[in-house]
Amino acid sequence: MQRSGLMRSSVVPFGSKSLFPAGKPSRQNMRSVVHIVDDMADQLHFLRYALEQAGYQTVFHLSLEDFADNISHEDAKAVLIDVRLGEDDATDVLDFLCRNRWKADIYLTSGDPKALEISRRYAEEIGLKVEAVIPKPFTGKQVMERLARKRDGLKDMFSQLDIVEAMREGWIYGVLQPKLDLISGKIKSAELLSRVEHPEFGVIPPQSFINQMNPEQNQTLFMQHVAFIRRHFETGAWNSSEFRININIDPINLVNIRSRMKALAAEAPDLFKCIVFEITEESLSEVTPAQLKNLYKMSLDGAIFSIDDFGTGLSNFSRLSRFPFSEIKIDRSIIHGSSGVSARRILVKSIINMAHDMGAKAVAEGVEAVNDFAFLREIGCDEIQGYLVARPMKIDKFFAFVSDYNSSDVSGVTKPAPVPDAP
């Protein structure tokens, strides 16, 4: 592998003699590192300026060898990889990241849309998640907008917090993201999501705390969701079997939750009518015979189940047929940009047809583009969920939004999404 001599990796930001002031870096003065692997890096000074003005430290690499020699996982926020790198390409860099258990965000860039899609699919094949693909030519602002979706330093922040304290102090709260029924053009359901708002760190992404909960804490959060639904949706105008709320359930809790839900249903007979229990496709492979039995028992009790994040696991028709589900939610990684990518169009259409053949609804997650919406409506998708309809929002905003939306004579799916209190 030949190393280019145009530019060596630079680890010092503009106007600085060192990365950190004297002493151990604090949370306030620590700068997140963005690595850029591009054999044309000498033409990307505009990108370096934009990123460093925004507080990031940039490290440029002209080749995979240069990247491998100088990479440091510490404080790395992201890597931006050009698909074409002379003798190497993005697949070689992705292999390197996989071997070294890269944890920071991955972005791909190229002027060739087909090459971008091939590289993204390869990343998924080896177990890496690509946050976004950024077509060339791009501006510094476009890259900044992508990075802005991930707040600095928050991914691992919750490991330093006490989850029990967060529950006790009320830092964890619920937000709702509407789901649009494509047949009626009305919002008839929503997904209940969790957020944490820490008094010092602000809003923390859900994956930063949910993945660290033990089964008991996860069950406690689940029961808080159920209590939330009972409080807001069992009475008044929202007490309707036609309006349903999706909540996630961990299969490990199926045994204990079933008995508690059955007791609650005895007090509130309509409770099962307004809840859809989501189980991720990935977790289906871990369901034990005892958990599967209770899943069937809950179905007999009247519970409705949904397979979430479908397309991220290795499920097949035979495995799916074992589970009594009524809904399949197609993961955003497949939906996003599906209208313009032939392979994804075929995949999405196949999943929707399979869901219908199995007597289930098909829901598309992460719908952000009008073209994707039109494509999904054309091929018979039942519901969509995503920023094109609305972002997750607190309960008071949710009630007002749904009332206005459903009373409108004109579909609002092409309108800008509202800016809610909770991201």
Question: How would you explain this protein's 3D organization?
Answer:
- The chain has 423 residues and is α/β, with parallel strands linked by helices.
- Helix content is 37%, strand content 20%.
- The strands form three sheets. An eight-stranded mixed β-barrel has the order 8-9-11-12-13-14-15-16, surrounded by four helices. It has a five-stranded parallel beta sheet with strand order 2-1-3-6-7, sandwiched between helices. It has a two-stranded antiparallel sheet with strand order 4-5.
- Helix 9 (254-267) links the parallel strand 11 and strand 12.
- Helix 1 packs across helix 5 (140-148) and helix 9 (254-267) runs parallel beside helix 11.
- The longest helix has 19 residues, at 215-233.
- Residues 156-406 form the EAL domain.
- This is Diguanylate phosphodiesterase.
- The modification 4-aspartylphosphate is found at residue 82.
- InterPro entries: CheY-like_superfamily, Cyclic-di-GMP_PDE-like, EAL_dom, EAL_sf, Sig_transdc_resp-reg_receiver.
**Beta-strand fraction estimate:** 15-25%
Give the fraction of residues assigned to helices: 25-40%
Average pLDDT number: 77
Quickly count the domains. Answer: 2
The level-1 CATH class of the largest domain: Alpha Beta
Q: What does the largest sheet look like?
A: 8 strands, mixed, barrel
Strand tally? 16
The strand order across the widest sheet is: 8-9-11-12-13-14-15-16
Given the C-alpha coordinates, what overall shape results?
A: globular
Which superfamily, in CATH terms, is the homologous superfamily of the largest domain? EAL domain
